[in-house]
Amino acid sequence: MRRDLVESLNAASNAAGTGLAQAALVIARIEYPRLDPTPYLAKLDAMGDAARRRIEANVMATGDNTAIGRVKTLNAYLFDEQGFVGNRDKYEDPRNSCLNEVLERRTGIPITLSLLYIEVAARAGIRMDGVNFPGHFLVRCPDIGIAGAKGIIIDPFHGGALLSEHDCRLLLQRHVGSEVAFDKSLLAPATRGQILVRMLLNLKRIYVHMRSFPQAREITEMLLGLNPSALSELRDRGLLAYHLNDLSTALRDLQMYLKLSSVTDLDEEERKEHEQIWEHVKTLRRRVAALN
């Protein structure tokens, strides 16, 4: 287990400011262990500078210094000039979750394209917030200084499309159906920690689906580094250790999970899962005892 990844991610997530790029490039090291972040940070700086110059030129030419005017100019730079696009054909490719690959290949999934959008905008002098929208990550540009303004909702996966509340309701229905009712709180700004956790959960799901269990276990370590009290990650780390035949670690984590999780607070489905984990623990105890 590469403890340096956990330590590097914690340092990046706790650094001054709200920047996401450094932490995203740490996450990319799961797929690219020797990744040097320097050229990619320099590329973001150059893109931010170019976007700022486009925005200033547009303001000079049109006199439009509104938030929506700046967003449209940024969209033209990123999606028309630079050619960034959502990867619909190979959505589950883990490279879509790696910022270095998003910059190289100019394609990604909603959260990485949103992260790119936020980082380039910040370097161009525009504040953007991530929006942890269910099923599809979005970006919000606050209309600072306009009384009662709710901000501009942007979908970088779809070329920087500007979304109304009605559009957001349709998007929610498309991705999660009736499981989640629309509420304006779903469009609230996400914290840096929330964005990084969502990136990691997306990538963990992909690795588990690919049966790339060593990488998935590294992600559980990073998630526990960000939030040591995340019981679901303690459980998953134990289950992944079981798949990797690391029996003593699996037994330790799953016993601790059962000890810390309260059966009285579980619904029927969770109770059944709890019972299955208890059966795993009993099997592990027998197997570990046989090794001694």
Task: Give average pLDDT, whole number.
Answer: 92
What class, by secondary structure content? Answer: alpha+beta
Major sheet? 4 strands, antiparallel
- Overall strand count: 6
C-alpha termini separation: 24 Å
| Outline type | elongated
Beta-strand percentage range: 5-15%
Could you state the oligomeric state of the chains shown? Answer: single chain
**Largest beta sheet: strand ordering:** 3-4-5-6
Gist of the model:
The chain has twelve helices and six strands.
Features:
single chain, 292 residues, alpha+beta, 2 domains, 4-stranded antiparallel β-sheet, 60% helix, 6% strand
Mind sketching the topology for me?
Blueprint lengths: L2 H11 L7 H8 L9 H25 L4 H15 L3 E2 L12 H7 L1 E2 L1 H14 L5 E3 L6 E4 L10 E4 L5 E3 L1 H12 L15 H18 L3 H14 L4 H13 L3 H14 L7 H24 L1
Parallel strand pairs: 1-2
Antiparallel strand pairs: 3-4, 4-5, 5-6
